[in-house]
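Obj.: predict assembly geometry.
Materials: sequence records (below).
Method: joint structure prediction, all chains together.
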Amino acid sequence: MTELIQHRLALVEQGAYKHQRRERVDATALVWDKSPLLRDALLLKASLEAETPFLFPNDRIGFTQSRERFAICRDRDGNEIWTDWSCGNNTPDYAYALNNGLDHIQQAVAQKRAHCLPQQKEYYDAVLIALDAVLAFADRCRDDARKAGADDLYRALCRVPHQKPQTFHEALVMMKLLIFTLRANRNIHLTIGRFDQYMYPFYRHDVKAGIPRETLLELLEEFFLSLNVDTDTYMGAQQGDNGQSLVLGGCDKDGNDAFNDLSRLCMEASMELCLIDPKINLRVNKNTPDELYELGTQMTKLGLGFPQYSNDDVVIPGLIALGYAPQDAADYAVAACWEFTIPGKGMEIPNLRVMNFPLAVLEAVTESLLACDTFDELLAAVKEKICVQSDRLMAQAVFPYIPPSPYLSVFVEGCLEKGLDVSQGGAVYKNYGLLSAGISTAADSLAAINNVIYQVGDYDKQTLLDALAANFEGYAPLRNRLLDCPKMGNNDDAVDTIAGELMETFASHVNGKPHPFGGVFRAGTGSAQGYYTTSVDLGATPDGRKAGEMFGCGFSPSLVARVNGPLSCIQSFTKFDLSKIINGGPLTLEIHDTVFRNGEGIAKMAQLVKFFILRGGHQLQLNTINRDVLLDALAHPENHRNLIVRVWGWSGYFNELDAPFQQHIIKRTEFTI
Amino acid sequence: MKTALVFAIEEFSVYDGPGIRSTVFLKGCPLLCSWCHNPEGQAFHNEICKNTNGCRGCGACVRAGENGALTENSVAACPAHALRWAASSFTPEELVSQLLKNRDLLTGGVTFSGGEPLSHPEFLQDCLQRLCGHLHRAIQTCGYADSDVFRAVLSHTDYVLYDLKLLEDAAHRHFTGVSNAVILENFRILCQSGVPFVVRTPLIPGVTDTEQNLAAIAALLKENGVDRIELLPYHTAAGGKYASLGRVFQPAFDESVAPNPRLELFKKNGIAAVVL
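Observations (raw structure tokens):
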């Protein structure tokens, strides 16, 4: 790490840029009487006009906020309206911006406007206001950079964003400007996407020009550092949940291996900096060399909670089956956490509602257990409940109001062509994802009932129902018996096949069903924070879990399961054809940090990841954890300020998590490998 | 039918031999090392373990037991699910079929550890024979066994992780409870057997990490043409499991001192020392 980066890192970690932040501006007077489309563009304009980005010494990337938040607008009662967030959780078409420059795009929009239908005019007007505002802002920043003596930044801004960049540095500056302005436009959880692909031509340009690799690494690190600035002002569910994920490797649109020198440089930069942003996702497939898994494992060893792996061989056919064009499917990226989306083509809402599998089991058990003479009858009743719940979730999934976002729609294919804002259906893909929570708790519950009631028969149905109603108070022996039944994660077909049937029911009922916004529904294995929200109010379940106890994170063993180890766990969670349930959602494995003590351990860990991929796993996140360290961090947070953990698809600082999520992670590690 | 008590099957053990392995821990050990971090592996009979974090002290287990002692009924009665049997009984057939379930993922194979695997010779040999041709077979042993037993097991073993703790017999008796004579005899047998092996020494502060002891080990290795050793530093968390068995961890050495691997002693003798 160079001196410049060390120095900047210290400033970023100390937050030595927050002192200059001023209060947000209230733009109500400017925008209140405008239509939603124009209001949005004018809000962006007001936000950018109020900004004079802070510059670090020798800043080459720039764009650190000078306001605590961006401009707001109030209604007549003084409440803020639609000013915290707008469309998001997708990847903009950065390649389009980088390959054309904003002047060219602006001209194209102006031409469209000149020949548009009357009803499209306002949309194009709004886009032009937004682009004007961004270009004016960039010009002002350019002049400020010159005044501040930030010569490199000044020179870059003389070219970008008006014209397309030539050098790697210019491309990085343009990326940071786009990220900054899209955030000012309140587009939350916009992800960085396939950075190593769309940035590669600029990187190649510099390499061919003879610029040393170390220089490019330093620039990249400065850019990565800039993504760790201002994250405290971000409107995520919790700090760290800010959507800044970056996808590396995988295949290109034609199926060729796309991992390149820049992918490697990104991994090196991330490993040197050891910061939570950007969060690295690795696309892998059956042809991925061992060496890349080992590089990924080196990163896992650092305890950042990434890379997260996604398997091309499962994801791409899964997306094609959902109706995505093969070339688009091959170009998939990962949204804020793990949701599979197509860069620059989507206004997808991949996490709209959560299927609560254990709820379906409990409903069926409460209503039908007494009447079910065989386990198969009970299983059929559960499947019926899953279908009913799926229908309910899809019916509730009416298109939520999303404020227009004319600026974002510049970077989403289909919008400019159709003259239709991204919020109004301009994008190519507009699918809705349903999450799911508690698959292991549900399957474990059914396996336990099968064993205790139908196979062994040591307890009767009424006793089980009474025990559940009493939250197992006074039923310790029965609860212990249930807890000792087969659990998902131990490669036991008695429970794994049940899990497969529940997922099959959910996915086949949901996948491809049309919704009013012009897309289809897609089922997934991820839960986001649903493992908490759907479990806190749920009563005791027949796997021995007590009322209110949390489920495992997304697609993972339950917290009450004693898991044999990662070999069994991987086999349990790859028995089902996961391409059928491909909204996204990783298996989470917690790995004890002693596994990484030496190179031998790293090579073996890399093999383990490879097994998961070769066996048809779709997505995997790994947490390097030492339980004692976590417990100590709980007791003495001041000693563990930089302790990073993977939560539900993103990495965060342990100390900054809400208490239930801290407890959940500690609970997850009870049986750490 | 022969059975043995297994107190753990560790999947993905990365430090018990080549490749990704499953390590089987057989219950019961003839030694009683002062630093033992697997106290549940010492006794040859099964025991009830209590998760001391989960236990609420409600007393339901004692009421369900007999004369104040915990029984099977106590395990069932615990409302916190904090009690469990330390080990499960397996026949060789059951154990091997369980191990083979992970066959595709075990790039290394299986390691039998303990406790002391050589203390279950019939069971062990039966398992090793059943695994022949399916998975690479290793044993991790303290070497304290009848030499005929050791020879017989070696003939079904692909790799040995052999512990050398203390070379001075009096010290060995003091800290492990037994003489090292048979251990050193078996070590010579191992060196002549042609079976690949690695020597491992736990680094216990002030006990095994002394200059005298490590120099003696280095000399013994050199004498037998052994050019590699793995050193396992003592970790202070080792005593953690004693409380769950209702025992108190009382090491006969100062836990707070960091062990000294004295790598130069090995280097001097041309031996590659790896600290795990």
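Conclusions so far: Chain A has a mean pLDDT of 92.
To do: check interface contacts against the pulldown list.
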